[in-house]
TrEMBL record:
GO cellular component, one term: plasma membrane
InterPro entries: Membrane_assoc_protease (IPR052165), NA-bd_OB-fold (IPR012340)
Transmembrane residue ranges: 15-33, 38-58, 64-83
UniProt-listed Gene3D superfamilies: Nucleic acid-binding proteins (2.40.50.140)
Protein name listed in UniProt: NfeD-like C-terminal domain-containing protein
Basic and acidic residues composition bias: residue spans: 193-203
Keyword 4Fe-4S: no
Region (Disordered): 94-121, 176-203
Domain of life where this protein originates: Archaea
Keywords noted in UniProt: Membrane, Transmembrane, Transmembrane helix
Source organism per UniProt: Halorubrum californiense DSM 19288
Amino acid sequence: MNALAQSGLLSPDTLPLLLLTAGLLLSMAEALAPGANFIVVGIALIGAGLGGLLLSSFVAGAGLVVAMALLTLVVGAAAFYGYHEFDLYGGKGQQQTSDSDSLKGKTGTVTERVTPTGGEVKLAGGGFNPHYSARSMEGEIDEGEEVMVVDPGGGNVVTVESMGYVEDDIDRELAADRARKATASDAESEPEGVERETESERN
């Protein structure tokens, strides 16, 4: 830390540029991992960095550092309020995507043919950038088809299945469950019929 201070990288003159750079990096990270984990802090640092660049010609030294700290708080609070008030990600009142695991089960549309090696989908409620690289479990999924995320894959490349395939599995499970219940109810009613027959034979 002393080496950084002695080199001048952490001086009040370079601090606005460092804050601006950190804010831009956090904003780019938000685009890669959507869910507003980084965007509010990124905007706060960008605002403080830009404000520091503008104020550096009027204020110097510790005064500039204090001014940038206050700008960070004010811009951060405004960004937080704006994020919640204007519902930029959609789904007001619902929990926003907070990590890649919450992408599992999300539905979307194929924007570029998806194969086991690549493709692209647009997910409903997928965050700041709803377009994700995708691959299929097997076979190809054509552009425009509805899909569901079966494996978020860390949020970088999601694995998807066609909704038609998913619905077929669900329909098969429901039909099998109905058949099991029908068999169980038939098995319960059979002993009663057998008991009645034996009673009538005795008479």
